Amino acid sequence: MKRLFLPLLLFVLGGSCYAQPFRIVAYGDSITYGWVPNPNPPSARYDFDDRWPGALQKALGSNYQVIEEGLDGRTTDALDPGATISGAQLDGSAYLQSCLASHLPVDLVVIMLGTNDLKPVFNRTPLRIAIGAAHLIDLVNTLNGGVGTSYKNPKVLLICPPPLNPSINSGPIFGPMFKGGVEKSRQLPDLYEAVAKMGGAGFLNAGSVISTDGIDGLHLTAESERKLGTAIAEKVKEMLK
């Protein structure tokens, strides 16, 4: 019996060293991508440590793995007629399930979308934007193992984007692009919290943590990106403890 005990103990202790990290997909738009604020696009991308997914990874440590899926211009579930890429284009709902299936196993998906839905080209009310976010939660809840696998559906953390800064209205590009969006963006938090609750998702109001303090009134400074990542880390730990 003693001969079996020591090898078994070593196996258990050694096996714990190889525990798989929690896998988290960060699914969003240009704020998730880390777009450097610029009122006259094009622009560049922040370094990893200055993007909120990078700050999230740093705050969580090696027991977690953050997978970035940020795309400039991505919507919740609206097809953008001005998209310059083919396939799913900028419709977040068209790519979400394929995205998650390609990364399985996934423990949690952090979704922060809705800012681009504010564009007048989509003619969406705040309620319709929140319904788009609810659609994304439902897609995660019905992933059902992806393709040929039997993994559990990931948990969802829905983040309401911070409201647009009124300074966006004076911008030569983003002003017309987001005309009327400032007031709509301020109405989103309560609606997002409601759909998150209905979909069994966690919720964080980014506007309670940071503001759209970039020079273009739409994006974040590096400091705010890092601050947001740290705040998300606390929610993630709470949901995956």
Characterization of this structure:
- By secondary structure, this protein is of the alpha/beta class.
- It has a single domain, classed as Rossmann fold.
- It has helices at 2-16, 30-33, 52-60, 92-103, 126-141, 174-177, 181-186, 188-198, 222-240; strands at residues 22-28, 64-70, 108-112, 155-160, 202-205.
- Strands 2-1-3-4-5 form a five-stranded parallel β-sheet, sandwiched between helices.
- Helix 5 (126-141) links the parallel strand 3 (108-112) and strand 4 (155-160).
- Helix 3 (52-60) crosses helix 9, helix 4 runs parallel beside helix 5 and helix 5 runs parallel beside helix 8.
- The relative contact order is 0.17.
How many beta-strand elements? 5
Q: What is the terminal-to-terminal distance?
A: 36 Å
Model regions low in confidence, pLDDT < 50 over at least 5 residues: 1-17
User: What fraction of the residues are assigned to beta strands by DSSP?
Assistant: 5-15%
**Main sheet?**
5 strands, parallel
Write out the strand line-up for the largest beta sheet, numbering strands in chain order. Answer: 2-1-3-4-5
The CATH superfamily is known as: SGNH hydrolase
Enumerate how many helices there are, as a single number.
9
How many domains? The number is: 1
What is the name of the CATH topology? Rossmann fold
Rg from alpha-carbon coordinates = 19 Å
Key features?
disordered N terminus; five-stranded parallel sheet; alpha/beta; Rossmann fold
What's this entry about, in short?
With 241 residues, the chain is α/β, with parallel strands linked by helices. The chain has helices spanning 2-16, 30-33, 52-60, 92-103, 126-141, 174-177, 181-186, 188-198, 222-240, and strands at residues 22-28, 64-70, 108-112, 155-160, 202-205. Helix 3 (52-60) crosses helix 9, helix 4 (92-103) packs parallel to helix 5 (126-141) and helix 5 (126-141) runs parallel beside helix 8 (188-198).
